[in-house]
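Regression test case RT-17, inverse folding.

Input:
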């Protein structure tokens, strides 16, 4: 894997919107203030202020912004302002050869999963499943900030990805496994199956999370990953946050736990659940492509390889 350079104070961070439109422009300026409070300089892409329906400008504009930030020699890292929807629409418009030659810390989650998968597959680039610009404000939550800085600015392995004190990581299926981390939002992972951007899980630790999906839809998407061989290929599974994924009518629905039991337990792979990764307020920064050890018996996930160079 190609590792981006370790970020340091004074580095220039680009903020861009490759997915959904930003409804309130003040959010962009709050993200700018947040990054400056961490010691970074900031460059804001035009897409942060553009709208085309639910998208942050037309596909060509969003792709152009992202390509330009990677090409800009002065930019050291790229922070996505938000997720939403739209990243899949620009995948064919990105210059992967250029991006591979200009590796930079790339950070985001949710819809940004599509870009993580594409950069992983076509650029061999380590990327970061972590906070977006909406999170990185002057009041950046301390737990999230600590992992954000640890992953991006120390040049050392992140180490154990532990939860906040009031949130317990649980062993879903016992065992121990090792491999590079990959994954993200279940909806986006499922959407790329059958395309040239589909996830490669062979020998990897697969992180899954989502938001606003009814249990039957989570069931459908997990079943799709199962039938596509992605759950069989991975070495271990990490279940992150599942915000607002409760059934509308509980008496007529399976619970998420029942779905996970039905689909994941028969695989007999080391599996953790309830990791603070995804749409939770306090969230980890998870380096995709970095080697990690999953010890389900101990309830730990430990990154053993530095994600930056």
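Golden output:
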């Amino acid at each position: 894997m190609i590792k981006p350079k370790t970020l340091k104070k004074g580095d220039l961070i680009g903020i861009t919107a490759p997915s959904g439109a930003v409804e309130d422009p003040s959010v962009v300026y709050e993200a700018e203030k947040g990054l400056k409070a961490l010691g970074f300089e900031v460059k804001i892409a035009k897409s942060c202020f553009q709208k085309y329906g639910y998208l942050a400008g037309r596909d060509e504009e969003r792709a152009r912004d992202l390509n330009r930030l990677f090409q800009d020699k002065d930019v050291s890292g790229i922070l996505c302002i938000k997720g939403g929807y739209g990243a899949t629409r620009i995948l064919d418009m990105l210059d992967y050869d250029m991006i591979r030659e200009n590796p930079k810390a790339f950070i985001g989650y949710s819809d940004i999963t599509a870009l993580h998968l594409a950069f992983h597959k076509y650029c061999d680039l380590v990327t970061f499943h972590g906070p977006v610009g909406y999170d990185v404000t002057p009041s950046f939550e301390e737990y999230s900030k600590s992992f954000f800085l640890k992953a991006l600015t120390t040049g050392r392995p992140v180490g154990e990805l532990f939860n906040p004190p009031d949130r317990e990581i649980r062993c879903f299926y016992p065992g121990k496994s090792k491999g590079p981390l990959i994954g993200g939002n279940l909806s986006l992972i499922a959407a790329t199956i059958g395309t040239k951007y589909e996830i490669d899980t062979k020998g990897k630790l697969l992180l899954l999370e989502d938001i606003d999906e009814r249990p039957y839809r989570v069931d459908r998407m997990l079943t799709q990953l199962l039938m596509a061989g992605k759950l069989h290929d991975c070495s271990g599974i990490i279940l992150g946050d599942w915000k607002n994924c409760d059934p509308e009518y509980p008496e007529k629905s399976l619970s998420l736990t029942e779905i996970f039991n039905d689909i994941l337990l028969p695989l007999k792979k080391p599996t953790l659940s309830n990791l603070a990764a995804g749409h939770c307020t306090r969230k980890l920064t998870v380096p995709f492509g970095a080697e990690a050890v999953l010890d389900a018996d101990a309830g730990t996930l430990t990154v053993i390889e530095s994600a930056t160079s």
